[in-house]
């Protein structure tokens, strides 16, 4: 009765063991798998090698409650050809057997010839992608020059069509060399600026069945936008560097307040990095202006760390080595405590309460020096 029922089924119907070994099959199964050896054959052997992993995983997931499992796999028939089947398998409720049926899977919709047309596909690419394609024959004459990039770059379609490329670009050594090497059978990749546009090019030779070069194809991308973006980025970097230079000049404003007297008013936090810049700028100004006195005004500085305090005292010593005298003015109590806590020798450091007192001291000393020099001159 069961065999009669199976034979009446229009599809490929069979019964297998849990391992997938066929124990019973209908006529359609015998026709597909071969009249001999259907029963006792492992179903997995007929599955296409690329589908076996998925098939085994699906087969192992067959529900125990009799629910059907459906999938699509390719199976090889007796004629040696592979065919896609939509299959359904179900475990029987009263035993280990598995009933399965195979029905031919619906074929993929045919692609109209017009949509497979290489020229149509190429046209779509040229019209929609930012590229340009140039084809030259074995003698270097352009037989195709088309693409959206030719239009967006302002050159226009067919810009080089009919031209002898080696002659047209004889003045450009980069283009000329790469065209000639492509026509000699080499693949070329290069970037060049031409007609105000930055092009990235891939040039490949075209060979016939005998390996003879019969021309070359060049695929070009307009890289001008990338170049402009890079230039804009560089301009911004240059602007930032100029702004940083202005900031550095503002944070160390060295002023000549009197003849041969310079002052550096400092405001804000003085860290080690800023103290090092102050030393460089102030020593340069002292040397350049032949200053006799350099006043370092700390009125606007609330806090300095121990390393900065050491830098400031070192700056006074460096000024003295240049033949000038360093004077510190406007020291805040917190700054004074930091300097004292270091245990540094302050006996040779001249300090004044504020900038005005420091300038007055410089003027008084220079006047006394001038008077002394005049007296010495009179005695001589």
Structure notes:
Helices cover 41% and strands 27% of the residues. It contains 13 helices and 15 strands. It has helices at residues 2-8, 27-33, 43-46, 52-60, 118-128, 148-152, 165-168, 173-183, 224-251, 272-289, 306-321, 333-341, 355-379; strands at residues 12-16, 22-25, 69-76, 82-91, 98-104, 131-137, 142-146, 188-194, 197-207, 213-222, 255-258, 261-267, 293-300, 325-329, 350-352. The N and C termini lie far apart (148 Å).
3D shape: elongated
**What is the count of β-strands?**
15
Average pLDDT works out at 82
How would you sum up the major sheet?
Answer: 5 strands, antiparallel
Radius of gyration of CA atoms, rounded to a whole number: 45 Å
Structural class: alpha+beta
InterPro entries: Bact_StressResp_Reg, PAS, PAS-like_dom_sf, PAS_4, STAS_dom, STAS_dom_sf
Keywords: Phosphoprotein
Protein name: PAS domain-containing protein
Pfam families: PAS_4, STAS
Give the tags.
single chain, 5-stranded antiparallel β-sheet, PAS-like_dom_sf, elongated, 13 helices, 15 strands, alpha+beta
Short characterization:
With 380 residues, the chain is α+β, with helices and mostly antiparallel strands. 41% of the residues lie in helices and 27% in strands.
């Amino acid at each position: 009765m069961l065999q009669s029922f199976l034979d009446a089924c229009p599809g490929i119907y069979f019964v297998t063991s849990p391992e997938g070994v066929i124990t019973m099959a209908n006529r359609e199964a015998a026709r597909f798998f071969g009249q001999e050896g259907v029963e006792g054959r492992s179903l997995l052997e007929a599955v296409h090698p690329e589908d076996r992993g998925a098939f085994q995983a699906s087969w192992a997931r067959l529900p125990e409650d009799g629910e059907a499992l459906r999938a699509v796999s390719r199976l090889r028939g007796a004629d040696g050809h592979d065919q896609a089947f939509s299959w359904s398998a179900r475990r029987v409720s009263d035993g280990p057997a598995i009933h399965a049926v195979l029905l031919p899977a619906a074929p993929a919709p045919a692609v109209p010839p017009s949509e497979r047309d290489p020229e149509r596909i190429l046209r779509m690419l040229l019209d929609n992608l930012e590229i340009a394609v140039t084809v030259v024959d074995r003698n270097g004459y352009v037989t195709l020059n088309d693409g959206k990039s030719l239009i967006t770059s302002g050159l226009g379609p067919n810009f080089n069509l009919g031209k002898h490329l080696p002659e047209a670009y004889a003045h450009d050594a980069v283009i000329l060399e790469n065209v000639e090497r492509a026509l000699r059978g080499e693949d070329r990749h290069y970037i060049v600026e031409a007609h105000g546009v930055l092009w990235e090019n891939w040039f490949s030779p075209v060979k016939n069945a005998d390996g003879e070069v019969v021309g070359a194809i060049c695929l070009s991308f307009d890289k001008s936008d990338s170049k402009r973006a890079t230039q804009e980025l560089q301009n911004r970097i240059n602007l930032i560097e100029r702004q940083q230079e202005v900031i550095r000049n503002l944070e160390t404003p060295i002023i000549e307040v009197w003849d041969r007297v310079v002052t550096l008013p400092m405001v804000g936090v003085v860290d080690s990095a800023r103290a090092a810049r102050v030393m460089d700028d102030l020593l340069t100004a002292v040397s350049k202006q032949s200053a006799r006195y350099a006043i370092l005004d700390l009125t606007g500085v609330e806090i300095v760390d121990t390393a900065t305090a050491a830098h400031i005292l070192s700056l006074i010593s460096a000024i003295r080595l240049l033949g000038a005298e360093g004077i510190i003015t406007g020291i805040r109590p917190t700054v004074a405590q930091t300097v004292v806590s270091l245990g540094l020798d302050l006996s040779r450091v001249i300090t004044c309460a504020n900038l005005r007192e420091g300038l007055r001291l410089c003027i008084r000393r220079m006047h006394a020096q001038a008077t002394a020099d005049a007296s010495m001159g009179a005695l001589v």
